[in-house]
Structure formats: structure tokens, C-alpha cells
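Worked example (supplementary).
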Amino acid sequence: MRTTLSWRGDMLVAALAFAALAVPAFALGMQSVLDFAVRFAIFGLLAMSLNLLIGTTGLVSFGHAAFFGSGAYAFGLLMQSGGWSVPMAILAAMAFTALLALVIGALCVRLSEIYFAFLTLAFQMLIHSIVISWVSLTGGDQGLMGGVPKPPFLGIDLGDGRHLAMFSAFCLLASVVALRQIVRSPFGAALRMLRDNPERAAFLGMSIFRYRLAAFVIAGTFAGLAGVLMSLYVSGAFPTFLYWTTSGEAIFMIMLGGITVFLGPLVGTAIFLVLNDRITNITEHHGLVMGSILLVLVLGLRKGLLDYIVDAWRERREKRA
Amino acid sequence: MDLGELASCLGSASCLVTQVSAGLTIGLLLFLVASGLTLIFGVLGLVNFAHGTLYMLGSYFALTAYGATGSFLVAMAAGALGVAVVGLLMERFLLSRIYGTDVLMQLLVCYAIILIVDDVVKIVWGGDFLKMDLPDAFRRPPIIIAGGIIPYYYVILFAITAVIAVVLAYGMGRTRFGRTVRAAAVNPGMVGALGINTAAIFAAVFGIGAMLAGLAGALSAPIRSVVPGAGVSILIESFIVTVIGGMGSIWGALIASLLIGFTRSFGSIGFPLFTEGMMFLMMALVLLLKPSGLAGKRQA
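After joint prediction of all chains, the assembly is encoded as:
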């Protein structure tokens, strides 16, 4: 659905959302609320970045967590090495994931849909096994231990839960504004055309490879930022961040929300996190329950929840008209 | 990295025999899984991300059947046929609903299946590493050729997998069923118009693919540890095989499986930390130089 908001409008909405979230959270300072806010920001950003590939570009990546985990490890290692300020380390970690996405993307985006999904999964598992076996650098199975130092910058102390929640919310909203601008730009329109009709795009003289690669790198970079936040949140980095299940969860979140609505992945993330917490509280057979929910959703609706609601709403409106 | 050791191994007959036999065994086991994956893709146009999970189920079924009866044959049959039944149920009730939809749907359904099966396995068999015992008949001293050691069970494995590879290649290439399957892969509408039940063909192909994965899992139960979630690594390897060999090609899968098997066995001497990287490097090279795979015709 197109609205007439300009980027100023986006910024205004984001600023309002930030104020609406941040002020009560800051005032309350309840640990559970803050934790949820940070996790929502982390996984919301991961899901939003993945949907730039799946929803906008039509590239179904099953290895998106490779960039999430790489961002977390890169940031954690830089901070542990000392001599890096938090903002510089964040930028460096994002640059590292961008570079990684460039290399993996250059190999993958040329391929057909099925090969693409499988190859992204395969490269993710390669990175996972490198992290597991390079014990001296990454700590192997145990993960990056010893904590991630967070020296304060600009009056922000990320060791404080409230500051971290604010900072994560800020990163999420800034990224969402940036992603929205990308999706609505001529570049975003080109990506949608590649998704719907690649032959036409090629016929118009567009380089499918370059556009797809650019989308892959952008999505990887934002996933890297999500990883940085994760590393700040848990004060470390663990191999599960890079495991294929994390990629699966990100796709699950997108599916819960919807791929055609811009903010769908955020709705999906919220549903996923609440569901996840509830189910973990009730039963230890977490995979069984989540898998069954996913099966019902996919085979029953064949699209995300928001997609379904939006489509049903549109149909009703058309019937009336 | 110890390329000197690799060179000296290549120069010694005993080391060569040991590593070649290990490579053949790893490669042929991998072939059983990868050929099913490539067959299902070629005919159904479906990427079965849950194929590694079927392999894992095969191990568990064999383990339980062997524990109950003590018979190796029953264990293998339980692995192969049990997983074939699971595969058929999966195909009929879940996957057949999403033929012709996009990759995202296939991926999500398979992801859901993996989540559910991994959890069910954990409930039934627990989360610990398990291993199947070898029957007494196979506990013989290793065979020694030119000073090289070949475990007795490897010979059994080699014989079984080689027979299956031949049967599979013959069945797909020379029999009426094989021709029908290949025709259904190219043009299912036409095959259906000739009065052949394509839904049954699709189910049969999926069942055969599942059975091969289950048998591979059963055969490997005595030599590899069985643990929930164990299917992922063999899934990735099978996919590498499929890319190198070419999607949909049985012969390509055989060649590529052996290539991966030898990379693993010789790599463990020459470059133990880089064997996985080497497999990916080979895959990347094939993708760059011949994206359709060594024996594939289909464009990647």
C-alpha cells in the first residue's frame, strides 16, 4: 500500500515511535520489558533485512544468519582487542559483513531460485564450521567468552540495560527508515521488477546480477548490525547465531507477519517472540509445537498472517465497490 | 596442512589402499543420499530440505530394530522401509500440496518437518549420542591388501552400495518404470494424458528417494554416532554433490559423491582443517566454470 509519506514523514513517524516506546520503557525500567525491547529490535532488524531479499527482490535466502553471526563475532572480537570505540567497531563490523555478503552474493545471486536457497544455506554452514574449528580466535563450541567491553560514548553506556534498549530501538528505527527509503526508491522499484519479471528487466538493459548483488549486500549489512546488537545484548557471540536454525527462525518470523506488507516482518517478530517465550514456559518440546504452527500456517493460509488479512480486506472492499 | 604427509601417502601402497577404501565407502554412502535428493528434484521439481532428516530417521529405525531382533538384515530393512513409509506419508499429506509453488513454501514446509521430526526423535530416543553394535558375523579382522587395512564392515558396505548404485542406474535408464519417470520429469501433463497416474509416479519417486536415504542412515549407524539434528551435515554434502554432479543426474551424483569421498579421506591426511573448505572450493569452481554441473544438462 502506498502512502504519500516522504522521507521526512518517515523520520517523523520513527521519531514518534521512538518517543512512544522509549519514554515509558525508560521511566519503568523493568528488566523484562527492556529485555523484550532489545530482542525485538535485534530479531526485527534481522527479519526486516531478510525481507528485502525475500519480499522485495524475490531471493529466498536460507543462510541469512551467516551475516547476523558474522556481525556479532566481528564486533565482539574488535571490542575485545581493545582500542576500538563502540561506534567505530559497529561500522567496522558492518563493513566486514558487507564484504562477506559481496563475496558470497557474487557466487550465489547468478543462480536459479532453488540453487540460491541451497547455496546460501551451504555457505552459512561453511562459516559455521570455520567458527567451530578456529578455536584460538572464536572460542569454538564455547563461543566468544570473556565478555564484550562496552566503553561509554557520547554519554551512552551500553552496559546499562536502559541505555542498551534505547540504543537498540534507535538502530532498529533508523534502519527501518533507511530500508523503507530503499524499497521506495527507483532502485527498490527495479528490485521488484526483477522479482516479478526478470526477462523484462534484462530486456531493458538492466544488469540483474548487479541489482541482486546490491540487494544482497544491503540485506547482509543490516543483518550484521542486528548481529552487533545481539553481541552487545549477550556480551559475547555463539556459534548458534550462525547455525541454519537462526536463518529458519528469521524466515518463520517473516512468514508469521507477511512478506508483502512493509512492516509485516516486525509484526511477525513480535508474534514469534511472544509465542516462543510462552511455548518455552509451557513445554520443552518447543520444536514440535513451533513446527506444527508453521505447518498449519503455510499449508492453511499459504501466506503470512498480515498478507492474508490485507488480501481479505482488499477483497471485501472490491466487492463493495 | 601437511602436504608432505599426503605426498608420502600417495607414494605408499598400504596408505593408498586404506584411504581409497575409506573414500569409496564415504562416497558410496553419500551417493545413496544424494541420488535420492537429485532424483526428487529432477522429477518433482522439489528441493527436499528434509532429506538429511530422513537419513537420520533411518539410523534410529535401524538401531531400534537391531536392539529388538539382533538381526542386521532386519535392521537394514527397518531403516529403508520404515523411512520409505515416513517419506510416502510426508509426500502425500504435506509436500504434494505445495508442488508448483515457490521455493519459499517448500523451504518452510521442510523446515517445519525438520523441527517436528528432530523433536519427536528427542522424545523417543533421547538427545544423547547413540551407536549401533556390529553383529558378530561382521566382527572379523580387517582385510589387508598390500599392507593397507580395510575394515571388514567397509567391504560389506561397499558391496551393498555398489549393487544399489547399479540397480538404480539400470532401473532409471533401462526399465519401463525408469522411462516413465524420466518422461514425467520432462512433461508430466503429457504423461498424464497417456493415462499414467503421475501422482503415483511422484509418490513412488519420493518413496524411493526416502528409502535410499533411510538405507544410508541404517548402513552408517554402526560407524557414525546417531544424534538428533545429525541430518544437516549430510544434507549439505548431498547438495554439494548435486551441484558438482548436476541436478537430476544419477551418474553425475555418483562421480561427485566419489570425488567428495576421496576429498574427505585423503584430505584428512593432507589438510584436515581444510577438507570442508576444499569441498566448497570444488563446488564454487564448478558453479563458476560449468554451472550446470559435470553431467547436468539443466541450466543452474
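Two points are worth noting when inspecting this output. Chain B touches chain A at residues 41, 47, 49, 94, 97-98, 101-105, 107-109, 111-116, 118-120, 122-123, 232-233, 236, 239-240, 243, 247, 273, 276-277, 280, 283-284, 287-288, 291, 299-300 (CB under 8 Å). The two ends of chain B are 33 Å apart (CA to CA).
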